[in-house]
Amino acid sequence: MAKELPTGRVRRAAKVGRLAGGQTARAYATKATNLARSEDGRRAAAERRQVEAAEQIFEVLGQMKGAAMKVGQVASFIDTGAFPPEFRERIQAKLAELRDAAPRVPFEKMRKVVEDDLGEPLGETFEEFEPEAVAAASIGQVYRARLRDGRDVAVKVQYPGVAQAVRADLQNLGLIMRVAKRMAPGMDVKAMTREIRERLTDELDYEHEAQNHRAFARTWSGHPFIYVPPVVTRLCTEHVLVTEWVDGIGFEEVRELGAPERDRFGEIVFRFFFGSLYRTGHFSGDPHPGNYRLMPDGRVAFIDFGMTKSVSAEDLTAEVEAIRLLMAGDAEGLHRRLGSMGFFDPGDDAVTPEAVLSHLRDVTRWYVDDRAVTVDRDLVASVLIDFGDPRSEHWGLMKRETMPPQAMLARRMEALTLGVLGQLGATANWHRIAREWLFDDAPSTPLGVEEQPFHARAAA
Known about the structure:
Layout: H1 9-34, H2 39-64, H3 66-79, H4 85-99, H5 107-118, H6 122-125, E1 126-129, E2 135-136, E3 140-147, E4 152-158, H7 162-171, H8 173-183, H9 189-203, H10 206-219, E5 226-227, E6 240-244, H11 251-254, H12 259-280, E7 282-284, E8 292-294, E9 300-302, E10 308-310, H13 313-328, H14 331-341, H15 353-368, E11 373-374, H16 377-388, H17 395-398, H18 405-424, E12 427-428, H19 430-438, H20 446-459
Parallel strand pairs: 5-9
Antiparallel strand pairs: 1-3, 2-3, 3-4, 4-6, 7-10, 8-9, 11-12
Helix pairs in contact: 1-2, 1-7, 1-8, 2-3, 2-4, 2-8, 3-8, 7-9, 12-18, 12-19, 13-14, 14-15, 15-16, 16-18
């Protein structure tokens, strides 16, 4: 039987508080037992404890939905590569459960949301409406339906009371982030807190998401291998979002395909998320594996635009210049550019040009180096450690740096895209692909050749 979604601040804080208390007690117990263990025994116990903590956190935050589940998704996905190799498959299975969690809100309650928002019974709008949800997310779940004109559609419905739950979570965010940091010790809590506060409120308004979705559908209309399904505007409200239904396979099935198929899929994901940012300045900030599907004709459909951002032309020009200076190995120029963008105090003598260049090269080496790179979990782990983790050799420098608000969502997008490529084990010369939008170079892959006329038309 489905459980009621807790919406009050006290009830939701109590769930997270019990989780935090249990984690603290177990941590103390582990420390006490460690007194009688060897160094290898202590390390093994710590690794087991981290995995057990992650599984428990996924379970509780996944049940809560709202901002709490969003924190769990983000924290777990970013730090997955840091888990010991022998535990990674176990953690991946848990993450798959979290991404594709079975809906916990009864259909009758979700039906009422749809009927209240549309102002008429379900049967007046839809020829068919399947009562079993096909997907569940942090603030809503998705159903398959058929309109009376015969079109198959996806109907995204917001959980009743989730807006209240999100507001409660935002008040409890400090406690939630403390719990999340136990499984992702390298997570930048301040940056993540700011991002969640700024972005999650927008996600609650499906009319706002529909507007973003339409913009992406226009931008990518006619693309040879990227597809954004159209929005059924007349049926979109604050709590209901209706789009064309897309047939295809999900991420877990794609991971089971052969290397060529996974490489192709990974390159399309890279071209969509990074290409959107650097070609148009308007990008999706949520490369969550549940947000795209491989269609039978080989195209990849991107289906969720609740978290997007438009970057000003000035900021985008500055970002591109910084990457070009990095690729050229110009330490002095890179230091000046990043300092002017607000990544650190340009007058801080401890933040030297050489240190900045070395740090940024380690973070971006997977696409800055001109060579074929297989993105595996070890690479993801090492890059994400250098993104912001005490284990990094650059930690002393990172403590003196900051993340400008205008750059925060883009960096999150890049880190999560890297994580996706790591789960695919995708191989490409990412450097040559990136040069297509950074330097207007000729295409370096068959996919690049295939999409070149599309971008030429868009630029005309």
